[in-house]
Amino acid sequence: MTKYSNVTPYRETNNFFASPTLYENIREFLLEEVIEVCFTKKNGDERKMRCTLMSEHIPATNAPILKEESGVVENKDYMNVFDVQQQGWRSFIVANVKYIKTNLPDLPAEISARRRAIDGFSE
After folding, report:
1. Which of 4, 10, 14, 53 has the fewest Cβ atoms surrounding its Cβ within 10 A?
2. What is the pTM (predicted TM-score) of this model?
3. CA distance 74 to 84
4. Domain ranges of the chain
C-alpha cells in the first residue's frame, strides 16, 4: 500500500476507498501513527476522531486484550480504535468512512498529560 500524506474523500481516491482491503489499509495506518478519521455515525451525525492502535498512545489501564485470549472473532465491517482525545476505545463502521488524514501534527500537550495521568505518572 502506498503511504498517503493525506487521504481525501471517495471521489478523489476511488481506488483507496473502493479497495476490498480497506480494513487492512486503515489498520496499517493505525498501527503506525495517530490518524484522523471522519465517518458517519449510525444516527447520521458526522464525527471526526483522532485515533490509533499504537501501544505507546494507549494507557496501560486500557491495554487491549489479545484476540486469542478474548475469543472474539474479528469483524472487518467495524474498526475498533483508541480515541486519543477521549482516552477510550471507540469503533466505527468501515464503510461509513468519509476520509482519513495521516501525518498529523503532534498531540496537544493536554492530551499527552492526560494519558500520563491515567497511567499514574505526573510531570
Report:
1. 14
2. 0.71
3. 22
4. 6-118
